[in-house]
Amino acid sequence: MDFDLREFVHRHQPNFPIRRIGRLVTDTTDFTSIGYGDVIRLGDVHYLVLRDEAERRFSIEDFKFWVKRCTTLETRQPAILKLVFHEEFTQRIGPLSIRSFRSETKEARILDLVRDDPRFMQGFSLRDEAGNLVRVLDIIRGKRLDMAIYNLPGTHREYFDTDLYAMLVRFISACEAIKFLHDNGERHGDVRRDHLWLESGTGTARWIDFDYAYEAHANPYALDLFGLGNVLLFITGKQIFTPREFAHMDGADRIVEDDHSLIFRNRLVNLRRLFPYIPEELNRVLMHFAAGSEVFYETVDEFLTDLRPCLDLVPQPKEEA
Q1: Domain 142-313, what fold?
Q2: Helical pair 164-183 and 300-307, crossing angle rounded to 10 deg
Q3: Dihedral (Cα; 194, 66, 119, 235), 10-degree rounding
């Protein structure tokens, strides 16, 4: 008996327009040809494609054509399907060049490792009929950490007095999650502030996107560590400060070249130049990622050893009577 795709979709999703039902896809190799209304079959489960996912970076929407937002027809539950996409590029940390590439097997391995750990996105992997390893991901209900912070009202001082403590608590938990990966011989590979989400309701900080791998022999965890430094920089400053933002601020005249990031030379790391009320100890953690630093963190443990005591140096929420 032939499989009637239209009847199958209509039975499970009666409100979906029949005229927009596409084709049944069992080989996801050509992911750019898979679009709205197509149905991807993995094993015995069918996923109705609704759209391509997108990341918004630098005010530009960057569509990820290999990542599909879907509805699971059998359960009517939402899901994200990450299809196999091989990409390679070189990153630089100071004088070092590091080859980075996407690895679907690495991400599948980490999904197995972090199953039921609320600090990470959740999902599992299935192969399509062509052997492509597709990752099936749960959707995290919440906001990106950076957008949650950036959208908080008020000045930096108000943020420092009322919200920084809570954000640091969440961030320290997220750092401990990265340490868990490292302790198990894994690396996140793409630690960025838009890859850390705050879950609605629980407020838990959760990492997403584990498919980048990289070759770094001197310190295999260097990119993850510098990524954590960049996230901490945003959390402490409530935003990233470049010459365009700080040019007319008090203290800008004291900024020197060594106050900027080792990797992103236009980003100010020495935030005490602008906000002298930031504790020296917290600023000192940031300065390990500055162009003028001679000592860098080699492990997340070292990073956390310096960061945890800073919680006692920033204003804590007042308990209600």
Answers
A1: Transferase(Phosphotransferase); domain 1 (1.10.510)
A2: 160
A3: 0
- Euclidean distance between CA atoms 306 and 285, whole angstroms: 7
DSSP code, position 79? E
Alpha helices for 238-265 (secondary structure H): 243-246
DSSP state of 21: -
pLDDT for 126-161, tens place per residue?
A: 999 999 999 999 999 999 999 999 999 999 999 999
Res 1: pLDDT: 42
Residue type, 71: T
For the chain, which residues make up each domain, given as ranges? 1-83, 142-313
What's the mean pLDDT when you consider all of the chain? Answer: 93
State how far the alpha carbon of 204 is from the alpha carbons of 174, 199, 254, in Å: 9, 5, 38
Please give the single-letter amino acid code of residue 1.
M
Q: What is the pTM of this model?
A: 0.93
The identity of residue 222, as a single letter, is: A
**Which residue, chain included where needed, has tokens 């197509």?**
38
- For residue range 220-273, what is the model confidence (pLDDT) as tens digits? 898 999 999 999 999 999 999 999 999 999 999 999 999 999 988 899 999 999
For 299-305, the CB contacts below 8 A with 24+ separation are 299/179, 299/182, 299/221, 299/225, 300/175, 300/176, 300/178, 300/179, 300/182, 300/221, 300/224, 300/225, 300/228, 301/179, 303/175, 303/225, 303/228, 303/229, 304/172, 304/175, 304/176, 304/179
Q: Is pLDDT of 285 > 90?
A: yes
Strands 205-207 and 212-215: unpaired
